[in-house]
Amino acid sequence: MTAMLELAGLEKTLNRRKVLDGLTLDVAPGKSLVIIGGSGVGKSVTIKSAIGIMRPDAGSVRIDGEDFLALDRVGRERAVRKIGMLFQGGALFDSLTIWENVAFRLLYADSVPRKEARERAVEVMRKVRLAPDFANLRPVELSGGMQKRAALARAIIGAPKLIFFDEPTTGLDPITADAINDLIVEMVKELGSAAVSITHDMASARKIADEIAMIYQGKIIWRGPARDVDASGNAYVDQFVRGSADGPIQAVV
Ligand SMILES: Nc1ncnc2c1ncn2[C@@H]1O[C@H](COP(=O)(O)OP(=O)(O)OP(=O)(O)O)[C@@H](O)[C@H]1O
Ligand SMILES: [Mg+2]
């Protein structure tokens, strides 16, 4: 079966540091992969490279079998429609209302009339348990958990076949985080999408992952079924899972 996402040999140097150094990863249709790794190892850079926000120095990105980096503008716009993204921190537009944020793609890429776009936004908001009363509010008027719901709604509104979640639960209390994780699992299942999520939080990783992959020094150093993460036989993974300062990974403080 063609992978929904296939990253091969990605390299990226930023500020003279080789952040990605031959990163290779694939995700099958309908599967949920969680990427773990310390702060600054290049998790977000990996996702940004996959969706075309950053251009890797070397390597290839295939989305649904297509060579993404070789596509022309029209081909790329078509490919991007298969993708949904929840950015680290939510990244809602402050000056837009919640429904306009949720419907952003419909309004600004698909030229859907405002009335229809609003209706569709409210429908997706309902799916992520955001009441229609929130539709006309601005992001600052929502709690962090509600903002994440809005960001999740924005990520799924186009029914993407491939969805990226960058730290969807960071900064939330454990109960709200769990509710967001439940929603992610529910939405991904309903859409039948492949999902790539980044998290620091092992409770979240265990909940949403079919598979877990760990990044260290620009590469995937371990990958396996989520249930194997406690018995990976890899000292780096063990240290991360235990959340310990003792081990081969040195914290930079
Ligand atoms: N646009 C950029 N320009 C220059 N350097 C960047 C840029 N984006 C990321 N970096 C650098 O690349 C490295 C990896 O960043 P990245 O955001 O991928 O980390 P991360 O693994 O997502 O960390 P965190 O868990 O803290 O979000 C960092 O050293 C960061 O400073
Ligand atoms: Mg990040």
Q: What summary fits the major beta sheet?
A: 6 strands, mixed
Overall morphology: globular
User: Total number of β-strand segments?
Assistant: 10
What is bound: which ligands? adenosine-5'-triphosphate, magnesium ion
The helical percent reads 25-40%
Describe the structure.
The protein has 9 helices and 10 strands. It has helices at 43-51, 73-80, 98-102, 104-108, 114-127, 144-156, 174-191, 202-208, 235-242, and strands at residues 5-14, 17-27, 32-36, 58-63, 66-67, 83-86, 162-166, 194-198, 211-216, 219-225. A 6-stranded mixed sheet has the order 6-7-8-3-9-10, with helices on both faces. The chain has a 4-stranded antiparallel sheet with strand order 2-1-4-5, with helices on one face. A hairpin with a 2-residue loop joins strand 1 (5-14) and strand 2. Helix 5 (114-127) packs across helix 6 (144-156) and helix 6 packs parallel to helix 7. It is globular. It binds adenosine-5'-triphosphate and magnesium ion. Magnesium ion binds at residues 43-44, 88, 166.
